[in-house]
Amino acid sequence: METLLAVKNLSIHFGGLRALDDVCFSVTAGERLAIIGPNGAGKTTLFQLLSGMLFPSSGKIFAFGRDITRLSAHRRAILGMGRTFQVTNLFPKLTVLGNVLLAVEAAGAAKFNLLRPLSSYKPLFVQAEGILKQWGIWDRRDIPVRSLSYGEQRQLEIILTLSQNRSLLLLDEPTCGLSPEEAKSLVSIIRSLPRDVTVLLIDHDIDVIFEVAEKVMVLHLGRVLAFGSPDEVKRNEQVQKIYMGTQS
Question: b or e along 98-115 (b: 16 or more beta carbons within 10 Å of the residue's beta carbon)?
Fold first, then answer.
């Protein structure tokens, strides 16, 4: 399969601190890659670089068949990159439907016309209705987002990202703060994503990682410690010693 994302010798330093050091990896289209490591390993910094929130000190990022190393986050989103954050990024006072309408509007040409009321765009409502029915939450369309559980908000955030036709999805700690039941539901959503969506996932829950991922990359002190299938990573002696709590 074709390579959708390739990272070449990526490094970034803040003063004397090298947060990422010569990181290299690639992801094929439709693949599910999980990135694990302790706090300070460089996982979120890597996502910041991939999404255009930060620019590297050295190295290159290629995606969608082009060099995106210096592209803005906005330009990367137009190309097909979507990202969720550790803290939900929703409009809490708006309803579920209102949030979906804004996401659909932002993904289409309607976003360039700021003078017409949103209610005048019937196709947006039709599209939003289809999205909510597809994911089984149409009956919750009139509920304010702030009234949803945290787990439901996390699910909605992923659904909104997908509604914007993103082909590369970066999920930053999607199960953080969720109950076991909410995490299970969110894992089901991730596993049901269409295969034309490529997923990069950061999570501290090892059970979630090995249930979702096809490949796993382990970061340690800003460098790639291991990369391979879940079974290969589980068998890696360094990973067992440092991250699984076993002694070799």
Answer: bbbbbbbbebeebeeeee
Q: Where are the alpha helices (DSSP H) in the chain?
A: 43-51, 73-79, 96-107, 122-134, 150-163, 180-191, 206-212, 230-235, 237-242
Q: Single out the residue of 84, 114, 118, 89 nearest to residue 101, CA to CA.
A: 118
Q: Which residue has the tokens 């803005």?
A: 72
For 190-238, write each residue's pLDDT tens digit. 888 888 899 999 988 888 888 899 999 999 999 999 999 999 998 999 8
Mean pLDDT of all residues in the chain?
87
CA distance 5 to 168: 9
Q: How far is CA 43 from CA 1, 56, 118, in A?
A: 26, 14, 38
Q: What is the model's pLDDT at position 246?
A: 46
In this prediction the pTM is: 0.83
Give CA–CA dist 162/167, Å, rounded. Answer: 8
Spatial distance between the Cα atoms of 41 and 64, rounded to a whole number of angstroms = 27
Angle at 237 between CA 231 and CA 241, to 5 degrees: 110
Q: What is the model's pLDDT at position 112?
A: 44
Nearest to 49 by CA among 75, 26, 80, 72: 72
